[in-house]
Specification:
26% helix, 33 strands, Rossmann fold, eight-stranded antiparallel beta sheet, seven-stranded mixed beta sheet, Alpha-Beta Plaits
Length: 526
């Protein structure tokens, strides 16, 4: 099979949603359609004996949520799909943002009862930075929720993206009869608790067909009225607008009942893009170039506690990976041989002989690989757009045994390299301040310091509320700034100077007073 054919059949996407929108359930149904799992482990009871396939970390299993982003590969029809599952819990981490830099498209899951929530808005901001194409699935139609038109308005207003319905629900909750697929002109009739694909599909090209009245009774006219309204109000699907990230096709269904999922997956593989070009500092890199190139977007430590291993997740941008190949690690300026690379089925792994642009591979990392690192076969490249985001929450680490300071330092450095939390060391006093995007990351960090580094520590509140990386072209001004603001300055794990402010007002005031200093909300990985 030719090189370009291999790339054309790949689809690499992330699933984004708010907590409890049903993302983990949808992920499992997608894996079932791809034959990757036989049985869904519903995430209902906290101590359920079977946990969701994509949730493997102990803290996730205890709380019934996804904390770390998982990577899963499966085949569907003639496509090779790399699915990146992002944590949807409100206490998610920067890892969630960064996973979206490694995908070519995204699937957004929205709870029909809640509409768009704050978490989804944050994730959409990251998608918008890259104009990521997005397919939307409105879930839980088997329960009472908002009116479908109100949901579309909510998405358009809050997320600034145009909606084009590809299917339309017939009723909801107890009156939910199914969905009409506008894309294929078919009516899919809903049966509660149906197995994999156990529902009736009826071809209805013309909505005036009396068969519709037989099947839906009084709800047939409701559907006709809705579709007529849609045809007048909604813009038709435009592939170009979708690929630019300005229009989203919308599907309705119920993931837990496996309803509407196959239609979603079929349309997704047909419409969403194959791996595309990637920007590097030096030039644009195209997927069908023969030279291998890849960047690290995530590091996960101790996936297997028995081996204390750390795996670096790489997105292949061009060329072909072959087992045992030698690549250049550009940040270190060294050639490294990769004896084994791994693909993932959640916690199950398989060694691979080869992989292509778009694939996500895992490489064992003994502390030498950092997020943002680029590997290539020859040319020096540095891929852009893999940022550190300024954290929004801060805690001061308190060590219970002062003799363990060395181990604490090592643990915090490794956890920050992994992107789980950001670590700031104050210039005055050398205290460690943890910065995170979600509050759960502090619990995860303390639990992992204890389990993996035998460090007994906890965290306490701090006055800091905002962090900004600071740079200046004028060395004199920077020296003066450092002297006057020493008590508010710290260095992150890579040695970059950061200003920690107690409030947004204080940050704005400082920015106004110091025009020679630039305050950065994101920082590219070095």
């Amino acid at each position: 099979m030719s090189f370009s054919t291999e790339i054309a059949k790949r689809r690499t996407f992330g699933i984004i949603s708010h907590p409890d929108a049903g993302k983990t359930t949808l992920t499992e149904k997608l894996l079932m359609f791809g034959g990757a799992i036989q049985m869904a482990g519903a995430v209902k009871a906290r101590k359920a004996s079977r946990h969701a396939t994509s949730d493997w970390m102990k803290i996730e299993q205890e709380r019934g949520i996804s904390v770390a982003s998982s990577v899963m590969k499966f085949n569907y029809r003639d496509f090779e799909i790399n699915l990146l599952d992002t944590p949807g819990h409100q206490d998610f981490s920067e890892d969630t943002y960064r996973v979206l830099t490694a995908v070519d498209s995204a699937m957004m899951v929205i709870d029909s009862a809640s509409g768009v929530e704050a978490q989804t808005e944050k994730l959409m901001e990251v998608c918008r930075m890259r104009n990521t194409p997005i397919v939307t699935f409105i879930n839980k139609l088997d329960r009472e929720g908002l009116e479908p038109l109100d949901l579309l308005t909510d998405i358009e207003e809050k997320l600034q993206i145009e909606c084009t319905p590809m299917s339309w629900p017939v009723g909801m909750g107890k009156r939910f009869k199914g969905v009409y697929n506008l894309y294929k002109k078919e009516l899919n009739l809903f049966k509660a608790g149906a197995k994999t694909n156990d529902f009736d599909t009826v071809k209805i090209n013309d909505l005036s067909d009396p068969k519709l009245d037989e099947l839906l009774g009084s709800q047939a006219d409701e559907l006709r009225g809705d579709i007529e309204l849609l045809e007048g109000a909604a813009d038709p699907f435009n592939l170009e607008q979708f690929l630019l990230g300005s229009q989203t096709p919308v599907f309705f269904g119920s993931a837990v009942n496996n309803f509407g999922v196959k239609e979603l997956l079929d349309a997704f593989v047909e419409l969403s893009p194959a791996p595309g070009p990637r920007e590097a500092v030096e030039r644009t890199v195209h997927p069908d170039e023969p030279g291998f190139s890849a960047f690290c977007f995530k590091i996960q430590a101790n996936m297997d506690p028995a081996h204390r291993d750390r795996i670096a997740f790489f997105r292949i941008c061009s060329g072909k990976f072959k087992k045992g190949m030698t690549v250049r690690h550009h940040r270190l300026g060294k050639d490294v041989k990769i004896p084994n690379a791994t693909i993932f089925m959640a916690q199950d792994r398989a060694h691979i002989e080869e992989a292509y642009a778009g694939d996500i591979i895992g490489i064992h990392n003994h502390g030498t690989i950092k997020i943002g690192d680029t590997f290539t076969t020859k040319e020096a490249l540095k891929f852009t757009g893999i940022p550190n985001f300024a954290p929004e929450l801060f805690r001061r680490i308190r060590l219970k045994d002062p003799m363990k300071r060395k181990q604490l330092h090592k643990g915090l450095v490794q956890l920050s390299e992994e992107g789980a939390v950001q670590v700031f060391k104050t210039l005055l006093g050398g205290d460690y301040i943890l910065g995170a995007v979600g509050v759960l990351q502090f619990d995860v960090t303390v639990a992992r310091l204890n389990a993996e580094y035998k460090v007994d520590a906890d965290y306490v509140a701090t006055d800091f509320q905002i962090a900004r990386w600071v740079t200046a072209e004028d060395d004199k001004k920077m020296s003066e700034f450092r002297r006057l603001f020493e008590s508010s300055l710290s260095e992150d794990a890579d040695g970059f100077l950061s200003y920690l402010a107690p409030s947004a007002w204080k940050l704005n005031y400082t920015e106004e007073q110091w025009p020679a200093i630039t305050f950065h909300k994101t920082r590219e990985h070095i």
